[in-house]
Amino acid sequence: MRRRRAWRWLGWGGVAVLSVILACGVVMFLQVPERRVQAETVTVVVHVHGESDRRALLVRHTDRWAGRMSDFPPGSVAHVWPRASPGFFLVRDADGSFRALSDRSPHLGQLLEFRDPLPGTSNYADGPRSGFYDPDAGSVYTLGGEPLQGPGPRPPDPFPLAVEGDRVEIATRALCPPYVSVRPTWCGSGEGPRALAAGQTIVLLPAGAQLHVLGGPAIGASRSVGDQELRAWGAEVAHSAPELEQQAAAGARVLWLHQEALSLLDPAWVRSQYEQGRAVGVLNGTMADLNHWFGLGENSPGWIQPGTSRPVFALVQQRRCEETNSSGLAQTSEWLSLGFWVAISQRAAADPCVT
Questions:
Q1: What is the pLDDT of residues 44-95, one digit of tens each?
Q2: What stretch(es) of the chain map to CATH 2.102.10.10?
Q3: Is residue 26's pLDDT more than 60?
Q4: For the residues 249-260, what does the mean pLDDT come to?
Q5: How many C-alpha atoms does 194 have within 13 Å on its Cβ side?
Q6: From start to end of the chain, where are the E strands?
Q7: Which CATH superfamily is domain 41-171 in?
Q8: Rounded distance, CA 144 to CA 131, Å?
Q9: What is this structure's pTM?
Protein backbone atom coordinates (compact mmCIF):
# COMPACT_ATOMS: atom_id res chain seq x y z
CA MET A 1 0.00 0.00 0.00
CA ARG A 2 2.74 2.39 0.95
CA ARG A 3 4.62 1.37 -2.19
CA ARG A 4 1.55 2.20 -4.38
CA ARG A 5 1.16 5.57 -2.66
CA ALA A 6 4.83 6.32 -3.24
CA TRP A 7 4.53 5.47 -6.92
CA ARG A 8 1.40 7.60 -7.13
CA TRP A 9 3.24 10.60 -5.63
CA LEU A 10 6.16 10.01 -7.96
CA GLY A 11 3.75 9.85 -10.92
CA TRP A 12 1.98 13.09 -10.05
CA GLY A 13 5.30 14.74 -9.22
CA GLY A 14 6.65 13.72 -12.60
CA VAL A 15 3.59 15.15 -14.32
CA ALA A 16 4.05 18.43 -12.45
CA VAL A 17 7.72 18.64 -13.34
CA LEU A 18 6.95 17.79 -16.96
CA SER A 19 4.26 20.49 -17.03
CA VAL A 20 6.72 23.07 -15.74
CA ILE A 21 9.28 22.01 -18.32
CA LEU A 22 6.71 22.20 -21.12
CA ALA A 23 5.52 25.62 -19.93
CA CYS A 24 9.09 26.93 -19.86
CA GLY A 25 9.66 25.42 -23.29
CA VAL A 26 6.62 27.20 -24.69
CA VAL A 27 7.77 30.52 -23.20
CA MET A 28 11.27 30.00 -24.61
CA PHE A 29 9.82 29.02 -27.97
CA LEU A 30 7.76 32.17 -28.09
CA GLN A 31 10.82 34.25 -27.20
CA VAL A 32 13.09 32.72 -29.82
CA PRO A 33 11.88 34.89 -32.73
CA GLU A 34 12.47 38.05 -30.72
CA ARG A 35 15.97 36.90 -29.85
CA ARG A 36 16.60 36.10 -33.47
CA VAL A 37 15.35 39.53 -34.48
CA GLN A 38 17.71 41.21 -32.02
CA ALA A 39 20.79 39.39 -33.34
CA GLU A 40 20.12 38.20 -36.88
CA THR A 41 22.85 37.67 -39.47
CA VAL A 42 22.17 37.83 -43.20
CA THR A 43 24.38 37.03 -46.16
CA VAL A 44 23.83 39.38 -49.09
CA VAL A 45 24.92 39.25 -52.71
CA VAL A 46 26.82 42.39 -53.73
CA HIS A 47 26.45 43.31 -57.40
CA VAL A 48 29.22 45.34 -59.03
CA HIS A 49 28.69 46.35 -62.64
CA GLY A 50 31.07 44.51 -64.95
CA GLU A 51 32.45 42.28 -62.17
CA SER A 52 31.55 38.97 -60.58
CA ASP A 53 29.09 39.10 -57.70
CA ARG A 54 30.54 38.83 -54.20
CA ARG A 55 29.05 38.11 -50.79
CA ALA A 56 28.99 40.13 -47.58
CA LEU A 57 27.58 39.81 -44.06
CA LEU A 58 25.31 42.18 -42.16
CA VAL A 59 24.50 41.67 -38.47
CA ARG A 60 21.48 43.14 -36.73
CA HIS A 61 21.87 44.65 -33.27
CA THR A 62 18.48 45.84 -31.95
CA ASP A 63 17.64 48.91 -34.08
CA ARG A 64 20.36 48.72 -36.75
CA TRP A 65 22.25 46.55 -39.19
CA ALA A 66 26.04 46.72 -39.22
CA GLY A 67 28.62 45.60 -41.75
CA ARG A 68 32.07 46.36 -43.11
CA MET A 69 32.16 49.28 -45.52
CA SER A 70 34.96 47.60 -47.49
CA ASP A 71 32.62 44.69 -48.32
CA PHE A 72 30.57 47.07 -50.48
CA PRO A 73 32.87 48.64 -53.09
CA PRO A 74 32.01 51.87 -54.94
CA GLY A 75 29.47 51.26 -57.69
CA SER A 76 27.86 48.31 -55.89
CA VAL A 77 24.26 47.38 -55.04
CA ALA A 78 23.18 44.78 -52.46
CA HIS A 79 19.64 43.57 -51.76
CA VAL A 80 19.29 42.97 -48.01
CA TRP A 81 16.34 40.65 -47.45
CA PRO A 82 16.02 39.71 -43.74
CA ARG A 83 13.58 37.10 -42.46
CA ALA A 84 12.04 39.15 -39.67
CA SER A 85 12.28 42.84 -40.70
CA PRO A 86 11.79 44.98 -43.83
CA GLY A 87 14.22 44.59 -46.71
CA PHE A 88 16.22 47.31 -48.44
CA PHE A 89 18.80 48.00 -51.13
CA LEU A 90 22.22 49.20 -49.97
CA VAL A 91 23.71 51.35 -52.73
CA ARG A 92 27.24 52.70 -52.82
CA ASP A 93 27.85 55.34 -55.47
CA ALA A 94 30.96 55.69 -57.58
CA ASP A 95 32.17 58.49 -55.26
CA GLY A 96 32.01 56.13 -52.26
CA SER A 97 28.89 57.55 -50.57
CA PHE A 98 26.15 55.20 -49.30
CA ARG A 99 22.38 55.23 -49.25
CA ALA A 100 19.74 52.63 -48.37
CA LEU A 101 16.31 52.47 -50.02
CA SER A 102 13.28 50.33 -49.23
CA ASP A 103 12.82 47.30 -51.48
CA ARG A 104 9.08 48.03 -51.63
CA SER A 105 7.50 50.32 -54.20
CA PRO A 106 5.68 53.27 -52.58
CA HIS A 107 2.90 52.70 -55.15
CA LEU A 108 1.21 49.63 -53.64
CA GLY A 109 4.04 48.03 -51.69
CA GLN A 110 5.15 45.65 -54.43
CA LEU A 111 8.57 44.01 -54.09
CA LEU A 112 11.19 45.77 -56.21
CA GLU A 113 13.94 44.00 -58.13
CA PHE A 114 17.42 45.27 -58.94
CA ARG A 115 17.90 45.25 -62.72
CA ASP A 116 21.08 45.92 -64.70
CA PRO A 117 20.07 47.22 -67.17
CA LEU A 118 16.62 48.60 -66.41
CA PRO A 119 13.80 47.77 -68.84
CA GLY A 120 13.21 50.57 -71.33
CA THR A 121 16.59 52.30 -70.89
CA SER A 122 18.56 50.62 -73.68
CA ASN A 123 17.93 53.54 -76.07
CA TYR A 124 18.91 56.31 -73.63
CA ALA A 125 21.44 58.78 -75.03
CA ASP A 126 23.81 58.16 -72.11
CA GLY A 127 23.43 54.38 -72.40
CA PRO A 128 21.43 51.76 -70.45
CA ARG A 129 20.87 52.41 -66.74
CA SER A 130 20.66 50.11 -63.76
CA GLY A 131 18.10 50.59 -61.01
CA PHE A 132 14.97 49.14 -59.43
CA TYR A 133 11.98 47.63 -61.21
CA ASP A 134 8.45 46.80 -60.10
CA PRO A 135 7.41 43.84 -62.29
CA ASP A 136 3.77 44.06 -61.15
CA ALA A 137 3.04 47.70 -61.95
CA GLY A 138 5.91 48.47 -64.31
CA SER A 139 7.38 51.28 -62.18
CA VAL A 140 11.04 52.01 -62.84
CA TYR A 141 13.36 53.80 -60.41
CA THR A 142 16.95 54.95 -60.83
CA LEU A 143 19.67 53.96 -58.38
CA GLY A 144 19.11 57.35 -56.76
CA GLY A 145 15.42 56.49 -56.29
CA GLU A 146 13.91 58.86 -58.83
CA PRO A 147 10.81 57.44 -60.56
CA LEU A 148 11.47 57.11 -64.31
CA GLN A 149 8.38 55.28 -65.55
CA GLY A 150 5.13 53.87 -64.22
CA PRO A 151 2.79 54.87 -61.38
CA GLY A 152 5.41 55.20 -58.62
CA PRO A 153 4.39 58.37 -56.70
CA ARG A 154 7.75 59.08 -55.00
CA PRO A 155 11.19 57.52 -54.53
CA PRO A 156 11.44 54.36 -52.42
CA ASP A 157 11.62 55.38 -48.76
CA PRO A 158 15.16 55.81 -47.37
CA PHE A 159 16.60 53.86 -44.44
CA PRO A 160 18.73 56.06 -42.15
CA LEU A 161 22.39 55.09 -42.09
CA ALA A 162 25.75 56.22 -40.75
CA VAL A 163 29.35 55.47 -41.70
CA GLU A 164 32.32 55.53 -39.34
CA GLY A 165 35.71 54.11 -40.22
CA ASP A 166 35.15 50.79 -41.97
CA ARG A 167 31.71 50.33 -40.40
CA VAL A 168 28.37 51.08 -42.04
CA GLU A 169 25.19 51.02 -39.95
CA ILE A 170 21.66 50.96 -41.39
CA ALA A 171 18.35 51.36 -39.55
CA THR A 172 15.96 48.41 -39.52
CA ARG A 173 13.06 50.51 -40.82
CA ALA A 174 12.62 53.31 -43.32
CA LEU A 175 11.95 56.97 -42.73
CA CYS A 176 8.62 57.69 -44.45
CA PRO A 177 7.08 61.08 -45.31
CA PRO A 178 4.74 62.54 -42.67
CA TYR A 179 1.94 63.11 -45.19
CA VAL A 180 1.40 59.37 -45.74
CA SER A 181 -1.96 58.69 -44.05
CA VAL A 182 -1.65 54.89 -43.91
CA ARG A 183 1.86 54.01 -42.79
CA PRO A 184 3.39 51.08 -44.69
CA THR A 185 4.81 48.19 -42.70
CA TRP A 186 8.39 49.10 -43.61
CA CYS A 187 8.14 52.55 -41.98
CA GLY A 188 9.66 53.25 -38.58
CA SER A 189 9.42 56.07 -36.08
CA GLY A 190 12.91 57.47 -36.46
CA GLU A 191 14.90 54.71 -34.77
CA GLY A 192 18.37 53.72 -35.91
CA PRO A 193 21.62 55.55 -36.62
CA ARG A 194 22.03 59.14 -37.76
CA ALA A 195 25.23 60.44 -39.31
CA LEU A 196 24.57 63.97 -38.02
CA ALA A 197 23.89 64.83 -34.38
CA ALA A 198 20.29 65.84 -33.68
CA GLY A 199 19.54 69.54 -33.99
CA GLN A 200 23.04 70.53 -35.11
CA THR A 201 22.61 70.84 -38.90
CA ILE A 202 19.81 72.71 -40.69
CA VAL A 203 19.08 72.82 -44.42
CA LEU A 204 16.94 75.65 -45.81
CA LEU A 205 15.21 74.11 -48.81
CA PRO A 206 12.37 76.26 -50.22
CA ALA A 207 9.22 74.51 -51.41
CA GLY A 208 9.66 73.43 -55.01
CA ALA A 209 13.44 73.74 -55.00
CA GLN A 210 15.53 70.75 -56.12
CA LEU A 211 18.74 69.91 -54.26
CA HIS A 212 21.13 68.16 -56.64
CA VAL A 213 24.07 66.04 -55.50
CA LEU A 214 26.62 63.88 -57.25
CA GLY A 215 25.71 60.22 -57.26
CA GLY A 216 24.72 57.40 -59.52
CA PRO A 217 26.28 54.66 -61.60
CA ALA A 218 29.01 56.92 -63.04
CA ILE A 219 31.36 59.53 -61.60
CA GLY A 220 29.96 62.97 -62.36
CA ALA A 221 26.32 61.87 -62.59
CA SER A 222 23.87 63.77 -60.37
CA ARG A 223 20.53 63.12 -58.72
CA SER A 224 18.03 65.06 -56.62
CA VAL A 225 17.64 64.75 -52.84
CA GLY A 226 14.49 65.60 -50.87
CA ASP A 227 13.44 66.25 -47.28
CA GLN A 228 13.21 62.55 -46.41
CA GLU A 229 16.77 61.71 -47.32
CA LEU A 230 18.17 64.81 -45.59
CA ARG A 231 16.32 63.88 -42.40
CA ALA A 232 17.52 60.31 -42.74
CA TRP A 233 21.07 61.64 -42.44
CA GLY A 234 20.10 63.57 -39.31
CA ALA A 235 19.62 67.09 -40.72
CA GLU A 236 16.72 69.35 -39.85
CA VAL A 237 14.87 70.81 -42.86
CA ALA A 238 13.35 74.30 -42.97
CA HIS A 239 11.22 75.61 -45.84
CA SER A 240 11.18 79.32 -45.01
CA ALA A 241 13.31 82.01 -43.38
CA PRO A 242 11.18 82.10 -40.18
CA GLU A 243 11.51 78.30 -39.82
CA LEU A 244 15.28 78.58 -40.23
CA GLU A 245 15.54 81.33 -37.60
CA GLN A 246 13.42 79.33 -35.15
CA GLN A 247 15.49 76.17 -35.57
CA ALA A 248 18.78 78.09 -35.41
CA ALA A 249 17.71 79.62 -32.09
CA ALA A 250 17.40 76.10 -30.68
CA GLY A 251 21.18 75.69 -30.89
CA ALA A 252 22.12 74.49 -34.38
CA ARG A 253 25.77 75.00 -35.33
CA VAL A 254 25.62 74.53 -39.13
CA LEU A 255 23.25 76.41 -41.47
CA TRP A 256 23.01 75.19 -45.06
CA LEU A 257 21.13 77.49 -47.46
CA HIS A 258 19.90 76.35 -50.86
CA GLN A 259 21.06 78.74 -53.57
CA GLU A 260 17.45 79.59 -54.50
CA ALA A 261 16.78 80.72 -50.89
CA LEU A 262 19.60 83.27 -50.59
CA SER A 263 17.45 86.21 -51.72
CA LEU A 264 14.82 85.35 -49.07
CA LEU A 265 17.14 85.94 -46.12
CA ASP A 266 18.09 89.08 -44.21
CA PRO A 267 21.85 89.52 -44.81
CA ALA A 268 22.30 91.11 -41.38
CA TRP A 269 20.76 88.06 -39.67
CA VAL A 270 22.97 85.65 -41.63
CA ARG A 271 26.08 87.66 -40.76
CA SER A 272 25.07 87.66 -37.09
CA GLN A 273 24.85 83.87 -37.12
CA TYR A 274 28.30 83.71 -38.67
CA GLU A 275 29.70 86.12 -36.07
CA GLN A 276 28.30 83.88 -33.32
CA GLY A 277 30.44 81.03 -34.62
CA ARG A 278 27.89 79.16 -36.71
CA ALA A 279 29.01 77.70 -40.01
CA VAL A 280 27.10 79.12 -43.00
CA GLY A 281 27.05 77.23 -46.29
CA VAL A 282 25.31 77.29 -49.64
CA LEU A 283 24.09 74.18 -51.46
CA ASN A 284 24.08 74.14 -55.28
CA GLY A 285 25.97 77.42 -55.00
CA THR A 286 29.51 78.75 -54.75
CA MET A 287 31.75 80.91 -52.60
CA ALA A 288 30.84 83.78 -54.93
CA ASP A 289 27.20 83.44 -53.80
CA LEU A 290 28.09 83.66 -50.09
CA ASN A 291 30.30 86.67 -50.76
CA HIS A 292 27.79 88.44 -52.99
CA TRP A 293 24.70 88.02 -50.80
CA PHE A 294 26.20 88.18 -47.30
CA GLY A 295 29.76 89.43 -47.62
CA LEU A 296 31.07 86.16 -46.21
CA GLY A 297 34.17 84.26 -47.28
CA GLU A 298 36.98 85.22 -49.59
CA ASN A 299 36.19 84.47 -53.22
CA SER A 300 39.05 84.10 -55.68
CA PRO A 301 39.65 82.38 -59.05
CA GLY A 302 40.97 79.37 -57.15
CA TRP A 303 37.48 78.50 -55.91
CA ILE A 304 34.80 76.81 -58.02
CA GLN A 305 32.98 79.59 -59.85
CA PRO A 306 29.29 79.94 -60.87
CA GLY A 307 28.16 78.36 -64.11
CA THR A 308 29.39 74.83 -63.53
CA SER A 309 27.10 72.01 -64.61
CA ARG A 310 27.98 69.83 -61.61
CA PRO A 311 26.50 70.22 -58.09
CA VAL A 312 28.75 72.26 -55.80
CA PHE A 313 28.72 73.65 -52.25
CA ALA A 314 30.62 76.28 -50.29
CA LEU A 315 30.91 76.84 -46.53
CA VAL A 316 32.51 79.45 -44.26
CA GLN A 317 33.00 79.44 -40.48
CA GLN A 318 34.81 81.36 -37.78
CA ARG A 319 36.09 78.75 -35.35
CA ARG A 320 36.73 80.25 -31.93
CA CYS A 321 38.01 78.47 -28.83
CA GLU A 322 37.67 80.57 -25.67
CA GLU A 323 39.69 78.06 -23.66
CA THR A 324 42.80 78.71 -25.75
CA ASN A 325 41.82 82.22 -26.88
CA SER A 326 42.30 81.18 -30.50
CA SER A 327 40.24 81.69 -33.64
CA GLY A 328 40.49 81.24 -37.37
CA LEU A 329 38.59 81.39 -40.63
CA ALA A 330 37.67 78.08 -42.21
CA GLN A 331 36.17 77.93 -45.68
CA THR A 332 35.77 75.19 -48.23
CA SER A 333 34.10 74.64 -51.58
CA GLU A 334 33.84 71.34 -53.43
CA TRP A 335 31.69 69.21 -55.68
CA LEU A 336 28.59 68.21 -53.73
CA SER A 337 28.31 64.53 -52.86
CA LEU A 338 26.26 63.36 -49.90
CA GLY A 339 29.18 61.55 -48.30
CA PHE A 340 31.47 64.59 -48.43
CA TRP A 341 28.66 66.93 -47.36
CA VAL A 342 28.01 64.77 -44.28
CA ALA A 343 31.73 64.74 -43.40
CA ILE A 344 32.00 68.54 -43.76
CA SER A 345 28.84 69.05 -41.66
CA GLN A 346 30.20 66.80 -38.91
CA ARG A 347 33.47 68.71 -38.83
CA ALA A 348 31.72 72.11 -38.81
CA ALA A 349 29.47 71.05 -35.90
CA ALA A 350 32.37 69.72 -33.81
CA ASP A 351 33.70 71.54 -30.75
CA PRO A 352 36.52 73.87 -31.99
CA CYS A 353 38.39 73.33 -28.72
CA VAL A 354 38.70 69.58 -29.37
CA THR A 355 41.46 68.68 -31.80
A1: 999 998 899 999 999 998 899 999 999 999 999 999 999 889 999 999 998 8
A2: 41-171
A3: no
A4: 96
A5: 20
A6: 41-48, 54-61, 64-68, 76-80, 88-92, 98-102, 113-115, 131-133, 140-142, 147-149, 161-164, 167-171, 201-204, 211-214, 222-225, 236-238, 254-258, 279-283, 312-321, 326-335
A7: Rieske [2Fe-2S] iron-sulphur domain (2.102.10.10)
A8: 8
A9: 0.74
